Amino acid sequence: MRRFLLQRLALAVPTALGAVTFCFFLVRLLPGDPARVIAGPQATPAQIAHLREQIGLNGSWLQQYVSYLNRLVHGNLGYSALTGQSVLSEIAAHAPYTIELAVCAIVLSTVFGVLLGTIAASRRETFIDTLIGGLSVAGVSVPVFWTGLILVSIFAVQLRMLPAAGAGSWDSIILPAITLSLFPLAFISRQTRSAMVGALSEDYSRTAQAKGSGWPRLVFRHALRNAAIPIVTVTGLELGQLLGGAILTETVFAWPGIGQLLVQSISSRDFVVVQGIILVFALSLIVVNLATDIAYVLLEPRLRHGR
Length: 307
Hints:
about 300 residues; mainly alpha; MetI-like fold; 2 domains; 14 helices; flat
């Protein structure tokens, strides 16, 4: 087990360095001069030069890259050219909203995705299986922003049951969380059905059924337990995908998370903040993958014994 985890940690280090390098050069390949755009058309050359030095655009790309890595080692992501605040503090102020939204969405998608997938596998080739399969296809096909607008139109505008935007009350998160959860819910449901169909056809399931195990015990104690690894895999992947979906969802619902901060920073060409947010997203995905690998070890005894 220790060897397995050390191997994954060793792979995470170059992956993180690659993510840092990608974020650095991606932002600098964007067309235009960020310093000139941020300073405005009335800025003098001296003001533009001062701003370029402030946001770290002086020197060659190699010099900027070395300086950027040095700042990262000390936990410095730079400073916003618009607000003057550190990027780390800007992200920290918005991160709790994104984490709250992502946690609610992944809980909804995992619970209902596993439940629907299990029901579909248990009622294979019936009307219920076909219905759940059709809903899953619709869930992965409909764009997030369109789903959000439809939910706002129905529950906020017509029925006036829930807030349309913002994070002013406890029920403000309901519509964004449902919107963000639909795509991973459909994907997890499809993966659960596939894994459960295979598990229910294995010898241990037939043996348990021959010994008189009831259907709920057979499904949830025997089959679902052995089908857990592919379900955990897709759940971990979808947790990483939620960060991308959160950008659109937060924009539609004016949710004050990192996704909305990213959109605002791109619009204002505050590339230091954009660079920091992309880096945080990339590192978060690496952490999620590591957590998924640890879950593998806990669920698969052969990995724990180094086989």
